[in-house]
Each structure stands twice: as structure tokens, then as C-alpha cells.
Structures
1.
Amino acid sequence: MILILCLQNRKSMSKYKSGGIAVAVRTNISKHIRKINTDCKLVLWFTISKNLTGLSDDVLCGAVYIPPVRTKYSVNDPYLRITTRIKRHFPQNISIFY
């Protein structure tokens, strides 16, 4: 069975809701997944517990959505915006990979 961890940023731009980011997780591992609340509209952040992975630290993950250019969803320089949010919300020494 699959559990939807979160739907984030669904917007009503017409009579229907559109957009949003979702992460699907199998229920048998869902207790090891934790959503991180931030103000970042382009990334749904979550951690995977070190108890599940066997690593020394939790794994920080982000489900990213980059809106199409020149649409009502687009933003100026989405990569810079994501990097800025990473530095703001996760100031410890982490590596950023694109």
C-alpha cells in the first residue's frame, strides 16, 4: 500500500485546483519519512531516517518542481531561489547537488 506523504502548493488558478508537489511512500516505511515545513514553493522537503538507511545521519531529500518558462506558474531564476532556501533553512554544512 502507498501513502501520500504530502500534497503541497495546490493552487486554484481556475475552477479546478492545479499544480502541487506530492511524494508517495510505501506504508511499511512511512514512519521513517518526515516532511519538513518551509516557505519554499518549488520544493517539498523531507528526511529519510538513518534507522531505515543504516547511515550515520538522516538523508535530506527534496521533490523539486521547476515551472515552465513564461507561464503563470514560472518564477525568475528558480535554481537560485532553491539554493537560497537551502542555505536559509538548512544552514549546517551540507552538499548541494543539482
Note: The mean pLDDT is 78.
2.
Amino acid sequence: MTHAQAAWCGACASGAVDQATRRLFVTNWDSNTVSVVASDTGQVVRTVHAGRRPLAVAVDARVGHAFVANAYDNTVSMLDARSGRVTADPKSRAMMRR
């Protein structure tokens, strides 16, 4: 990652690519967000709120979701890989009911 690319993500902790959508999911530790980046253009498509201090992200292309580990909440946020939107908010415990 070059300095110019790092400017939009602040203190990045982790990134993962969804091969199906060709999107990069990047955790932004300082802002408690995840940036969704079009890998072919490098443009930020969306930035969404995660839990407190998102530390790591992993993508499961089989189910079409990105999973974000939030260090200070001890929670996992789930994002839809196509839309980039949060589908399970760790505060609502929605994932635990599925």
C-alpha cells in the first residue's frame, strides 16, 4: 500500500479481497469503520461502521459475506460482500439468533 492509498483509511489494521465481487474490505482502527474498495480502480465504494476497533477482516466468498473482528467489543460484524452494507450489527446480537 502506498502512502497515497493509505490516506483514505487512516490506521489500517487488516484487509481481505472478495474474489467474486473484486472488492477489498479494509478495517479502519481509528474510525471504527470498514472501507469497501473497488480493487480495479482503488476507489472507496462505501465506508460502514463496525464495532469498536475493527482489527481483522476475512471474506467467505461461498456465503458472500465479510466478517470483521472488533477488538474492543469482542464482537464480529458481518457485511454483505456485494452491497458492502452491514447485515449483522454486533450491538443487536442479530448474528447469535441465526
Note: Residues 84 and 98 are 20 Å apart (CA to CA).
